[in-house]
Amino acid sequence: MENSEKLTNSKEVIAYIAERFPKCFTIEGEAKPLKIGIFQDLAERLSDDPKVSKTQLRTALRQYTSSWRYLHGVKAGVSRVDLDGNECDVLEQEHVDHALKALEESKAKVRTRRKEQAIAKAAKEGDAKKTRAKTAKPKNIKPKTAKVNKKPVETTPVLKADEVIVGKNVQVNMGSGNMPATIVEINKDDVRVRLNNGLVMAVKAEHLRS
Fold first, then answer.
1. What is the role of this chain (predicted)?
2. Do both 84 and 170 map to the same domain?
3. Of 25, 69, 106, 206, which is least surrounded by CB within 10 A?
4. How far is residue 32's CA from residue 85's CA, in Å, rounded to a whole number?
């Protein structure tokens, strides 16, 4: 049994009449100019068809004949066709001019709409960037500081007076630590020592450790 469910939109109606009358209507490529009064013929042929109403046919025909591919097909010297694809009268120049004008106006509207959409999109993206910039929280970047492992100062006993003799290996207190050295000379006020690196220096006896 054939499906008699009613069509719901012009796109479905156009596809349906193109299926019923393929020599007249097409859903792809350049369309053929239609016979004047084609609506009456179409309404009569489909009067008992539960799928479409006259109102749907009229709306679908209006959409079909205003499409770019139909307007492209309205050219000088081309003949109109009826529902069965038979050629009728040749297109008049005024109809050709009207189709050309309608095509240019339709394309101009599309260009304008696309331009407006592009401007609106750019403005929306600009507003979004500003909003993100305002709401973005600055990152608190703390500078990394190198950890210095301080060695504890060695607390060795102070060298006794009778231990201050030439040739004795001692530790020289440098404030931040002790350095190994050897006593090389003893004076009245200070003691001269030679560090392991060969440096000779004079220090107070109180800075010497055992």
1. RNA chaperone with significant RNA binding, RNA strand exchange and RNA duplexing activities.
2. no
3. 206
4. 9
Q: Are 164 and 208 in contact (CB under 8 A)?
A: yes
> How many independent structural domains does the chain possess?
2
Question: CATH no. for residue 52?
Answer: 1.10.1710.10
Q: What is the pTM of this model?
A: 0.54
Per-residue confidence in pLDDT tens, the chain, 210 aa:
355 678 889 999 999 999 999 999 999 989 999 999 999 999 999 999 999 999 999 999 999 999 999 999 999 999 999 999 999 889 999 999 999 999 999 999 999 999 999 999 998 888 888 878 777 666 666 666 666 565 555 566 777 777 778 888 888 787 667 888 888 888 877 888 888 888 888 878 777 777
Instruction: Classify residue 200: in a domain, yes or no.
Output: yes
